[in-house]
Amino acid sequence: MSFLLQPVRVGTGSDEEGLLVFDADERLVAVLVRLSERHENLGLVGHWFLEAGFGPVDGCDYPTFADLDQAQEWIERRSAYSATLPCPRSRMMTAALMRTPAGMVLSRMISTRVLRASSA
How far is residue 49's CA from residue 29's CA, in Å, rounded to a whole number? Predict the structure, then answer.
């Protein structure tokens, strides 16, 4: 499975370098954030964190990955077995996120991208 990675700034307060991860059908499946020097004491500088997952990538855990290849492999594995073990708490958190200012901006970005893609 191939993914489209779109750079984005994420308003987390410290780690802003992010990527929107779209599947082959151009559905948003994840938001990854690159961890900054703030995480040096944990040895995670430059690692990627799953800030949010959608559909089968949604879950109860939010892992970190040493590199983008590792992150994409994990997303692909999660997508392969679908949402057999959904986490209701995570779905509620996603719904709550979409009601925040950052979530509304993300929603507008996705809508704009979808509109652009459909008019091309």
Answer: 14
Listing from the earlier edge strand, what are the strands of the sheet with 48-53? 4-9, 17-22, 28-34, 48-53, 64-65
Count CA atoms within 13 Å of residue 78 on its CB side. Answer: 23
Beta bridge partners of 65: 48
Task: Write the CA distances from 22 to 16, 39, 41, integer angstroms.
Answer: 19, 27, 31
Query: Could you tell me if 27 and 55 are in contact, meaning their C-beta atoms sit under 8 angstroms apart?
Result: yes
The predicted-structure confidence for 56-83, as pLDDT tens digits, reads as follows 888 767 889 999 999 999 999 888 765 4
Which residues does 67 contact at the CB level (< 8 Å), separation at least 6? 47, 48
What percentage of the chain's residues is helix, strand, coil (to nearest 5)? 45, 20, 35
Evaluate if residue 51 carries a pLDDT over 70. yes
Instruction: Give me the count of residues in the chain.
Output: 120
Q: State whether residue 10 is helix, strand or coil.
A: coil
Task: Count Cβ atoms below 10 Å from residue 24 Cβ, excluding itself.
Answer: 10
